[in-house]
Amino acid sequence: VQLVESGGGSVQAGGSLTLSCIGSGDTFLNSCMGWSRQAPGKEREGVAVIYTDGGSTYYADSVEGRFTISQDFAQNTVYLQMDSLKPEDTAMYYCAASYAFRFPPHLYEYNYWGQGTQVTVS
Q: What integer pLDDT is reported at residue 32 of this predicted model?
């Protein structure tokens, strides 16, 4: 399984970015696809999850109402639309796949991770 993120970049506060995560093979089959982030010196934080079979979603309080996770099952792609970005959203963002029987999964329950894409908000 391979997960490849893209779409990161630098943006001013209040701006928007859309991250994409493309998975290989049957990555998205009956899985939870999540986005998490890690800022320098801080622990990794889960921000959004989508259950691919049904589309249920979960958001961390810190991004609720500003971020939207979605999927294109046919394209094996998960998106994270990020609006009203704040400087505190600056972090490396990772896509991950979990096959655990929990929603949302704990971070340690993700089986596969991408390499990450940097988001910088100034």
A: 92
